[in-house]
Amino acid sequence: MSTTTTSPRDQVPVGADRASAARRGRRLGAIVVGIGMALILVYCLAPFVWMLISSLRRPSDGRSTALIPWPISVENYRAVFDPANHFGRALGNSLVVAGGTTVLVLLLATLGAYALARLSFRGKVLVMFLVVATSMFPVIILVVPLLKLFTGGFDWWPWSWINTYQAMILPSISFALPLAVWNLNAFFRQLPVELEQAAMVDGTTRFGAFVRVILPLAAPGMFTTAIITFIAAWNEFLIALTMVNRPEMQTANVAISKFTGISQFDTPYGTKMAAGVIVTVPLIIMVLAFQRRIIGGLAAGSVK
Amino acid sequence: MSTLAHRRRARGDGQEGLAGLLLSPTLLLLALVVGFPLVLSVRQSLFQGGDEIDPTTGIIQQGDTFVGLQNYLDAFTSSGAGAGFWNAFWNTTLFTVVGVAIETVLGVAMALIMARALRATGLIRASILVPWAIPTVVSALMWQLIFDANGIANEIIGQQILWTTEGLQAKAAVLIADIWKTAPYIGLLTLAGLQTIDEQVYEAAKVDGANRWQTFWRITLPLVRPVLMVAVLFRLLDAMRMFDLPYVLLGRLRSGQTLSMLAADAASKTDFGMASAYAVVLFLYICLVAVIFVRGLGADVIGDADGRARRARPRRLRTTAEGDLP
Asked: CB-based contact (8 Å) between B153 and chain A?
């Protein structure tokens, strides 16, 4: 990005008025960019900040639109963890479902993505097409028959999987696995081929080269893919909503969407906002810590 | 011909076998969690649910009857159990077309600004990921509060709009919330594309006397087009299956009902035949858009080996010309 400032034209001596015009143009440009940046910041953060502010009001201040919540209160946060909400349990459930999905998907995707990135075989384009196509699948088309399946709607399936973790993890694989394969594929392609070739010249098999040379190098890529997969699985809603009807098996997202709060007649916005902040903050911390990696990972699939 | 030679070589050193070994778990699992339910859905859409919950025992009673395309007919004529299909269809289309169009313009604008930013790039980068990282459910609740009758949105515009009641304003609320969450994503991907454009191209344009407007339309946009196309395609297909946002923001309002919601609603009433028909129609609709986009507009999603080789060549030339690119 910094190359834009020190491009050669800045050093080339030109006519005085042309230079000053260019300087004026640049200053104007800088102002426009500065305003634009400020707008982007406000655009991205203002709604979230508003959620944070609203979560810190007293429950009785409900939907006040005062910019500063005064007196500040953590009462809403206490209400979130009211035993009736099962919210602590819900967070645990989310962790199990998103974590389980991520681990499972990462194991399989690493193998598959390596084959797609490095090996040549018949039908490769078809496999890549299938992976992309499944990632664009409407989840609902899987949820409908799986709901029937898991509720015992088919004679040949004797198990009732409603209200189980596997009923949420398995369907989540449908979107998480293609996503992970895609990301890892891009990472593997960035690694120089010469590394494996050198290892193979030294007498290692291709699989040995994959395990001993490529995997250690791909660790950052796998880590990034894990984060992106985890966030995608953590944010999933439709599957978790459909496959579970017992409150203690709900994921955090589903639990929040069903909050009724302390009073029945008023939407408990404060509690919902507090819960929203609690669910989002871990993700934001991840984003802050690994922003470069995440952006690289997101972009890897589209910039080839 | 080169691919043939390539293939022969590949078979020689056992790459095919290893590829099969490495890919089979992924393909098997995808067949199980995607392929199989898809087949079940298509089959189920040809049956009508005799499934009814027995009011006394609460047990689902079996009894599917084959009805051929009746479920689809019901949907397309919006009659009987299919009522609400066209409403959901047009909502889905509206959210997709208007939403993605605005997202794209906003996203590209953000990318252009970020590409020229010299300071605070880390801050911008982190903040632009915030809308992407927030769960859609949480963002829907957030916007519900913002769009409350006495909420901050009405206070800012000085109106008393009942956003979350039936009508155009409810659709607008969904669109605004969706655009907020996804425009930065398009911006990020576009920025990544912008950063691959060679600075020399801009220099050349400047030498040729192109103004900013011309530079944008004739150089930046065409060069960033491949990346932008993929981003827009992903967003289109994602918007078409929208569920969480209207479900949480508007509840069961007709104004926000999408095809996914319609199908989920039917499924929750154990009308699996109708639910499957809706889902299959949505699936075909998504396929149609994907095909039009990839074939008609040339969005290169897969970027297969041949395509890569073709693109790699100019890149290599450029590397030698500049000598400092990685």
From this structure: no
Tell me the residue type at B78: S
Whether ipTM > 0.90 holds is: no
CB A111, CB A270: distance < 8 Å: no
A107-153 residue pLDDT tens: 999 999 999 988 888 888 899 888 888 877 899 999 999 998 998 88
* Sign of the dihedral through C-alpha A199, A203, A208, A210: positive
Contact B256, B246 (CB under 8 A): yes
**CA distance linking residue A295 with residue A286, whole number of Å:** 12
User: Is the minimum CB–CB distance between B206 and chain A shorter than 8 Å?
Assistant: yes
pTM, whole model, 2 decimals?
A: 0.86
Q: State how far the Cα of B170 lies from the Cα of A251, in Å rounded to an integer.
A: 27
Alpha carbon of residue A206 to chain centroid: 33
Domains in chain B and their CATH numbers? 83-256 (1.10.3720.10)
Ordered domains of chain A (ranges, CATH): 2-75 (no CATH), 86-258 (1.10.3720.10)
Which tens digits make up the pLDDT trace of B96-133? 999 999 999 999 999 999 988 877 778 888 889 999 99
Q: Which residue shows structure tokens 């009659």?
A: B79
Cβ proximity of A283 and A233 under 8 Å: no
Task: Tell me the two tokens of residue B136.
Answer: 């859609």
Cβ within 8 Å, pair A147-B283 = no
Q: Chain A within 8 Å of B71 (Cβ-Cβ)?
A: no
The length of chain A, given as a count of residues? 304
Q: For chain A, say whether B18 makes contact (Cβ under 8 Å).
A: yes
Cβ-based contacts of B305 with chain A (< 8 Å): 120, 124-125
Q: Do B305 and A124 touch (CB under 8 A)?
A: yes
